[in-house]
Predict the 3D structure of the following.
Amino acid sequence: MQCRLVVETHSTLNPMRIPLVHSTLWSLSLAVAAVSGPLRAAESAAPQFQNADRVCFVGDSITAGGVYSTYLKIFYATRYPGREIAFSNAGKSGGSAADALNRLAWDILVNRPTAATVSFGMNDMSRLHLGLSGTPEALEQAVQERIKTVEANYNKLLDGLSAAKLTLIGPSPYDDTLQVETKIERSNLAMARWTARLEQIAKQRGAGFVDMGAALNPVNTRLQAADPAASIVGKDRVHPGPAGHLLMAMAILKAQNVDPEVSRIQIDAGTGKPGPLVNCAVEELRTGAQGVDFFCRENALPFVLPLEGGMRGAAFWGIAEKAAAQIEAVGGPELIPFQSELNRETLRVTGLKGGRYEVRIDEQLIGEYGAEELGAGINLADNPKTPQHAQALALAKSLEAVRGLDSTFFRLVAHVRGSFLEPANVAIQDEAAVEQCLKEAIAKLPPDNYGRGMAERYSKSVPGQAAKKLEERERLLAQIREQNVLKPHRFRVTRTAAQ
């Protein structure tokens, strides 16, 4: 098998100037063996990312942070390694539909997207809540008036993206029911009303649609029924934590009707025959009184978060211990059923004699199970001891490193360009002019201003770092290419000696 990674630069850009690098692009390509077993065929609410797609995530700070999009990248890299896909992040802190329209040419279309997700609303629908409007009726009227204004800019943005397959994403909830002292500045009603309008726009344009409120609100309700100070969103009422981003990724993947199975490995120890198999091939199968032994080549890897410890507890949620405990208390994996619904890597061995069996993969003990458990099937994606998990974890960590580089450096550059340089008609290639522009902006803005903080970060961390950051990204992309080469594994299911 051979894996090919594509790194692109734009011909109109100077590769030595980091301000001109707008996105993190990576792609992976593997030859995938034929799938044995049933394939799913159902209508999707949103288009899947296909081979040769150039996917651009357009949105505000929730997108700019790159968390849910990185989970999507991990999923596609592990579930569909045969698809060569380039991804770019065009999220911007404080972003709105109008802001995205202003940066459409240099920050979005420069990536030449063939597919795009568009997620705005959190900032577009700000300062709409009962505290400002006075009555529910006045709030509703204010929301509808705002929608008219936002929709005009939103449609212009979508017109500019008409060459791409579009998925319109309703904003994640604004948590105005969270019982903390944080000031309420928006309302979840406004998010719901805008989402309803987005669904209509998506139907009119033949675009995909994902309702994030429908995905996150029920989970939030269950959390707050147990603890009014708990939230899937976060203490600022706006930005979901990693568990919320996992829900967001899950909502997109389910709307895309992705294959829920990594693989299905089935062996009949009684007849010595495999099958039916899904997304894998079994060779050199041997059976006997003590168990089975075979080689299996799976055509995918399990989805793994870029964290140690697997998909349980704090490591599963990727968040603080207290937040993980809150989620576990009201359902845990049943509350966010990613594993059972989208990450099934089944090993099923029927026809075994009663008793306990050791399961080894490449001679590594991954667990001990009863014959009935193996007959029913175990989900290997739940097991952090497998070599498949180790390979997927290494891949996920590399993609997380790309996310960190993108969100802390490349998107910082885009933010400063859009907020300060473009309005001042300062060319980003002119380093002296950039320095002067930011110096003047910093002097005018109050110390606690968010934009001032971004300008200060840029001044301290960007100049002179272009070559280093580009080299770091290229190294990570090469590493991802190596980590995503699939390998066959030897499975041994052996009756324990104590019986």
User: Anything to note?
Assistant: The CA atoms of residues 267 and 274 lie 4 Å apart. The first strand starts at residue 54 and ends at 59.
